[in-house]
Amino acid sequence: MPLPSGEEKRILPVGLDWGRWALTGRGIYFIDTRSSKPVISFFNFADRSISRIATVEKPLYWEVPAFDVSPDGHTILFLQVETETETDIMLVENFR
């Protein structure tokens, strides 16, 4: 929204999942999940363009949303599933 006052305006074509975007001084990095393979994209504040950074080849890990970008924009961190996993909860009685 333009400051000091103004109307709200959508700048990205998608709604962003909580924890799947990062703000930098130059723009917004985000994961676009509209297609079968999510895409990491960048919205540039200077020219208001969106560019594709990378396609996520493996499934995203949805249990804990995590996404971040280094201050220089050269490194992106996100979680993906490497293999199918199972988890168990175990009760240990009389543990000392």
Note down, in words, how this protein is organized.
- The chain has 96 residues and is an all-beta fold.
- The protein has one domain.
- The protein has no helices and 6 strands.
- The protein starts with 20 loop residues before the first strand and ends in an 18-residue tail after the last strand.
Q: Count every helix, treating DSSP H or I runs of 4 or more residues as helices.
A: 0
Uncertain segments of ≥5 residues (pLDDT<50)? none
Question: Which class do the helix and strand fractions yield?
Answer: mainly beta
**Total tally of structural domains:** 1
What's the order of the H and E elements? EEEEEE
Helix content: under 10%
Q: Sheet with the most strands?
A: 4 strands, antiparallel
Taking Cα atoms only, what radius of gyration do you get, to the nearest Å?
Answer: 18 Å
Number of strands: 6
Overall mean pLDDT stands at 81
Strand order of the largest sheet: 1-2-3-4
- Strand composition percent: 25-35%
Measured distance between first and last alpha carbons: 59 Å
Rough outline: elongated
Structure summary:
This protein is mostly beta strands and 96 residues long. Helix content is 0%, strand content 28%.
Keywords:
single chain, mainly beta, 4-stranded antiparallel sheet, two-stranded antiparallel ribbon, 96 residues
Please write out the topology:
Elements: E1 21-23, E2 27-32, E3 39-44, E4 50-55, E5 67-69, E6 76-78
Antiparallel strand pairs: 1-2, 2-3, 3-4, 5-6
